[in-house]
């Protein structure tokens, strides 16, 4: 892995007796899209708020580009952009005025700022609405502009907290296009979402947080290996010899569902399925039903947390 842009070491945060973060540690490589999953109340938003220096941790350390994050450090803060769950826009201002306001917070002025604003509005498909008040925008358009507000100062690290919540398919696709473009430009992204398929499609590594602790952090293929694939099949009759050969299949476990239905749990589905069909053919055994089930991110998540993403 390349040099980390974001390093989180043993970060802790409590609200009274509730431990929102209980010793969270991970790192995100420069240019990586890192997914962060967790049920409601797991600590995701608290963690992003700390990384964005909007909230002070009780303990631990956050480093951005090797530099420790401290409160009110403008140098580090300028490296970070955050898209919060709640819209951070001013409805009485136009789209361009909103972006201009956020740019000025980071010291941007003049022609360079105006070019940046025009480019962002065009990328998000809002250039034809630049002079219209945000209060007249649809929810999806506001979500797209909310992303744009975090990009005006060209951050190295972008924190996305549910950026597509409640948006229409067109707006979601626009946001995805911009995220992929940012990734291509080398921006480092931490992405949280309630939509498993988004994280699965966008992120190279995924962290799963629950009760303030990081319970897993790995690539999607490695996370999926935590659960077995399954092959369930029915055959006319399984003699002792056939049953014994199936039970000896490498990397698989055999169990009986009923008199005619068997199931193989395996670590690698394609080779196990190929070997199963070959064995049945060798034993001249008729296959009357076959279904396969592979692990996915949602099943791994439920296995690790015992809860749904929106619990």
Q: What proportion of the residues form beta strands (DSSP E)? A: 25-35%
Largest sheet: 6 strands, mixed
In the CATH scheme, the class of the largest domain would be Alpha Beta
Portion of residues in helices? 25-40%
Mean pLDDT: 92
Radius of gyration: 25 Å
CATH topology of the largest domain: Rossmann fold
CATH superfamily of the largest domain: P-loop containing nucleotide triphosphate hydrolases
Query: Mind telling me which CATH architecture of the largest domain this is?
Result: 3-Layer(aba) Sandwich
Number of strands: 14
Number of domains: 2
Shape: elongated
Sheet with the most strands: spatial strand order: 6-7-8-3-9-10
Helix/strand/pairing class, anyone? alpha/beta
Low-confidence stretches: none
| Number of helical regions | 11
- Give the SSE string: EEEHEEHEHHHEHEHEEHEHEEHEH
Report the span from N to C terminus.
Answer: 33 Å
Architecture overview:
The chain is α/β, with parallel strands linked by helices. The protein has 2 domains: 4-224, 3-Layer(aba) Sandwich (Rossmann fold); 229-294, ACT domain (Alpha-Beta Plaits). Helices cover 35% and strands 29% of the residues. It has 11 helices and 14 strands. It has helices at residues 44-51, 74-77, 95-105, 110-123, 139-151, 169-184, 196-202, 220-224, 240-247, 269-282, 297-305, and strands at residues 4-15, 18-29, 33-37, 59-64, 67-68, 80-83, 157-161, 188-192, 205-210, 213-219, 229-235, 252-256, 261-266, 287-293. Helix 3 (95-105) crosses helix 4 and helix 5 packs parallel to helix 6 (169-184). The longest helix has 16 residues, at 169-184. The relative contact order is 0.14.
């Amino acid at each position: 892995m390349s040099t980390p842009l974001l390093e989180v070491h043993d970060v802790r945060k409590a609200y009274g007796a509730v431990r929102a973060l209980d010793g969270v540690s991970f790192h995100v490589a420069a240019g990586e899209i890192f997914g962060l999953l967790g049920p409601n109340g797991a600590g995701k938003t608290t963690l992003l708020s700390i990384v964005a220096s909007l909230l002070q941790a009780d303990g631990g350390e956050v480093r951005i580009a090797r530099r420790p994050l401290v409160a009110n450090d403008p140098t580090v803060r300028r490296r970070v952009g955050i898209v919060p769950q709640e819209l951070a826009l001013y409805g009485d201002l136009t789209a361009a005025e909103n972006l201009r306001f956020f740019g000025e917070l980071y010291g941007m002025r003049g022609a360079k700022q105006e070019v940046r604003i025009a480019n962002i509005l065009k990328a998000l498909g809002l250039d034809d609405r630049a002079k219209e008040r945000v209060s007249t925008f649809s929810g999806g358009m506001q979500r797209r502009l909310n992303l744009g507000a975090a990009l005006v100062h060209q951050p190295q690290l972008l924190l996305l907290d549910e950026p597509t919540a409640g948006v229409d398919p067109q707006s979601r696709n626009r946001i995805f296009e911009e995220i992929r473009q940012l990734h291509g430009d080398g921006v480092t992204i931490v992405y949280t979402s309630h939509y498993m398929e988004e994280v699965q499609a966008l992120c190279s590594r995924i962290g799963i947080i629950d009760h303030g602790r990081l319970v897993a952090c790995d690539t999607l293929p490695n996370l999926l290996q935590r659960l077995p694939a399954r092959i369930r099949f029915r055959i006319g009759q399984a003699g002792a010899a056939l049953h014994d050969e199936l039970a000896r299949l490498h990397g698989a476990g055999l169990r009986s569902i009923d008199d005619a239905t068997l199931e193989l749990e395996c670590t690698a589905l394609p080779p196990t399925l190929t070997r199963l069909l070959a064995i049945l053919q060798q034993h001249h055994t008729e296959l009357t039903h076959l279904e396969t089930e592979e692990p996915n991110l949602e099943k791994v998540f439920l296995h690790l947390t015992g809860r749904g993403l929106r619990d």
